[in-house]
Amino acid sequence: MSEQPATQPRDADKRPTIYEVARLAGVSHQTVSRFLRKDPTMRPDTVRRVSHAVEKLDYRPNLAARSMRTRRTNRIAVILPETTSFVPTRLLSGAAAAAHDAGYLVDVVGLEGDAAARAERIGALLQPANVDGILSFTPLAENLERLAPSGPRVPIVVDGEYDDNMRARALLADAKAADEIVGHLADLGHRTFVHVAGPKTFASALNRRTEYEASVARRGLVSHAVVEGDWSTGSGWKAGREVIAGSPATAVFAANDRVAFGVIRGLQSVGVDVPGRVSVFGWDDDELGRYFQPPLSTVRVNRESQGRAAFQRLLSLLHGKQPAAPMDTAGLNQLIFRDSTAPPPTV
Amino acid sequence: MSEQPATQPRDADKRPTIYEVARLAGVSHQTVSRFLRKDPTMRPDTVRRVSHAVEKLDYRPNLAARSMRTRRTNRIAVILPETTSFVPTRLLSGAAAAAHDAGYLVDVVGLEGDAAARAERIGALLQPANVDGILSFTPLAENLERLAPSGPRVPIVVDGEYDDNMRARALLADAKAADEIVGHLADLGHRTFVHVAGPKTFASALNRRTEYEASVARRGLVSHAVVEGDWSTGSGWKAGREVIAGSPATAVFAANDRVAFGVIRGLQSVGVDVPGRVSVFGWDDDELGRYFQPPLSTVRVNRESQGRAAFQRLLSLLHGKQPAAPMDTAGLNQLIFRDSTAPPPTV
DNA sequence: TTGTAGGCGTTATCAT
DNA sequence: ATGATAACGCCTACAA
């Protein structure tokens, strides 16, 4: 009773393995493995014994060992934009939560800089052996080629981008909201519009812009200008002062709320009243919009569920299914009308 | 020349291993391993041959296999708050970038919900076998006990929290800025203050609040109230209307810019002029503050480098060193004076 | 229903 | 300076 430490010989600093659980439970090591895999063919009594041992030892599986054997990592990589002005936090947490719910771990990698060393590490990370799939919240384009030049590729989903045969349905939600914004402003009596867009590389920005142009044309209205913005308040401010103020436009559709705040403040700074002279519509339902002066009309998008949806799309890919476009396309976007939109001045 | 496929037998869908690299280079598999480990004792010629083979096959190491053998994962976990109103994006990207630079991968895990399954997964993730260290941007408290009840623990750093013997120095930067804010307002002539704080569970919020109270007392000023906020614009709005408006206070120190925006708008909504009647100071240098009405006085904190610093602290722990407090404590916070602060009304 | 053998890709240890 | 062999912890296959 002194030579062999029996059940807990671990060198203090070492986690128990299935072997030690097995020994404590008086079974073989892969009976423990079966237990972990929730094999239904186990005798209830055995389950109990193993379960106790697991608990007593506070056993936790070694993920690396598992994935090496199963060739599945239960991990996805999420690629974040390098842009400092646009970081989709809610998207990230939504996607991460969905991933966790589905039993996946989430690696985040940034696209910042381009040090060779980092490129290499990221390249390694994105191998099939290291990650089951990739979810990107930033346009990828040729970056991908650089990161994983050849060989088998894991499934990739870029948020907001869809392949052709699902484009129509998938983008419908955003397009519909964009069209409704134009419609709302038109109903108020506006005829001349400006759109402050997001970067063209973002599918979502491009889509909104495209739909804006289509909607304006369809309704026989005038698009005075489309300003290329970068999601930032500064770009809105600039557009407000340099393009919109003094122009015949009376209605502005901004790519997001931060831009809209900039537009409004820019206009106010040169004495243009909002919404007296110009109406402004945002997109995101940033909390501040409720308290802004004037309170901002906007689109409430559930970024959390957008993130979840993006992950679901990836998950479908991982399961070998064709990813379905989000079904609840209807309820995804909700227009919120506040005081930043009103009828145009009666000339 | 037909039986053995020589150098690229991989089943189309399989990444090459060091064995295939070895075969192509005409060396043994752990000569390749040495190459990967940058072993300096290799003959230059051998290095060249292996290097070529690696490149030709686009070989990337299998991280799981490596970590299983080395018992190091080169991975850290970053824990994000469940709060939806406060998501430290910049902190995250700063920390992630620093981690990547140091050769570490980053897993993000949220603290959302409490489903047993998720707790289990997270618990597994946080094992030494799965992650080398943990960086948390949210208070952990007893959560930790729940997640990893026993056994060896990996090093943990909670952003903003420091152990006692470094507290003084580490917190100096924030405390100094907080004191300077009070000082600035006092210099303008203010005597009666309100602080709209962040959640007490956040070390940073608690520290600012504590220093606020100390600074006010030290200077013989009056703290009319300390309002418990939650980092949100709404909490600022509420504080502005319900506590500050109609009170004798003429100066407000808000926990962050979003709160400050709420305070200002709340005051304006009940006809209280800022800064005519009340001055408001923020914290964060949110871009919008530059364009706000009035432009917001605030503290510019480099969240990126704060995130980097947090990771460095963890890295020290990982290397077994005592973590040093940030050295550049001086330049970390920079007060920015804009129009939201002015002398109090002359009574 | 449970146990035994083998191997996943890598690095460590020992030879040579 | 390089090669052979074992081991990391787990799971899949097959045997009992």
Automatic annotation (TrEMBL), chains A, B:
<dbReference type="InterPro" id="IPR010982">
    <property type="entry name" value="Lambda_DNA-bd_dom_sf"/>
</dbReference>
<keyword id="KW-0805">Transcription regulation</keyword>
<protein>
    <submittedName>
        <fullName>LacI family transcriptional regulator</fullName>
    </submittedName>
</protein>
<dbReference type="GO" id="GO:0000976">
    <property type="term" value="F:transcription cis-regulatory region binding"/>
</dbReference>
<dbReference type="InterPro" id="IPR046335">
    <property type="entry name" value="LacI/GalR-like_sensor"/>
</dbReference>
<dbReference type="Pfam" id="PF00356">
    <property type="entry name" value="LacI"/>
</dbReference>
<keyword id="KW-0804">Transcription</keyword>
<dbReference type="InterPro" id="IPR000843">
    <property type="entry name" value="HTH_LacI"/>
</dbReference>
<dbReference type="Pfam" id="PF13377">
    <property type="entry name" value="Peripla_BP_3"/>
</dbReference>
<dbReference type="GO" id="GO:0003700">
    <property type="term" value="F:DNA-binding transcription factor activity"/>
</dbReference>
<feature type="domain" description="HTH lacI-type">
    <location>
        <begin position="16"/>
        <end position="70"/>
    </location>
</feature>
<keyword id="KW-0238">DNA-binding</keyword>
<dbReference type="InterPro" id="IPR028082">
    <property type="entry name" value="Peripla_BP_I"/>
</dbReference>
